[in-house]
Specification:
With 294 residues, the chain is α+β, with helices and mostly antiparallel strands. Helices cover 20% and strands 25% of the residues. The chain has eight helices and 16 strands. A hairpin with a 3-residue loop joins strand 2 and strand 3.
Length: 294
Amino acid sequence: MTEPLFALGEPRRYAGDVTVRVVRAGWFRPDAGGFFGVVPKPLWSRLTETDDRGRLRCRLNLLLVEAGGKRILLETGTGVRMTDKDRDIKGVEGGDPVEALRAVGEDPGSIDFVVVSHLHYDHAGGMVDADGRPSFPNARYVVQRDESEAAHGDELRVQGIMEVEQLDAVRAAGQLAEVSGEVELVEGVRVVRTGGHTRGSQAVLIGSARPPRRTGDPTDRAVLWGDLIPTRWQIPVRWTSAFDDYPIEAIEVRNELVARAADEGWWCYFTHDPGDLPIRIERTEKGGFRAAAD
């Protein structure tokens, strides 16, 4: 049976009455060499395969979060503004967050916040529609101030690879919310600047840290990693990507947060993982980390 391009996962509840569903918004195919960077092929090839062009088949996963009476979309996929040539090179199938939401019966106009982990095309490409208007007309778009400043800066490495025009269109519409560091959007949904992958990359912590209000309430928490950890394949903290702008920082932050995820039992969501989500992380006998057994 052919797998549907768009799909909506089952709801999962976390502490503070936060509900999360995975929205499968399509596929893309990053170059394996760039995706795994310094990791030797004999290691990563145990986990996944490539096509005849040396590309991996990865998901475009979004999260639809409901908390505190608000609806929050995490990530926006590739959107619709790519050229046909770019879509072919990058193997994009689908990628439009508006189409994906409508396909699973959800109204894009009901979204109150859109959180973009960073401004690369596969996360921020769907911020605006084909006409350059915000894809989510009633939402505030949450981006780290460091990230928007980097997008407008003069670092050669980031020139042409950040969604600057889309960011500016959202700003012009009065819908941009620039934040700095760790900020709680609503109770149980908190953005955390991680850096590493890009200057202002951010992860999202899900689930209230406060004690349960009632006996039997969920106590679990979760995290969406952004491209600090794009799939479960990159859980080993030293597995940096060629796409990480600040690899040393990425390793240090990854080590800190992955240790917390393992020790505190966080459920983990990955923007590009093709497998079932969420999963948990556990420590290995040698002091590393891995995806926990089912």
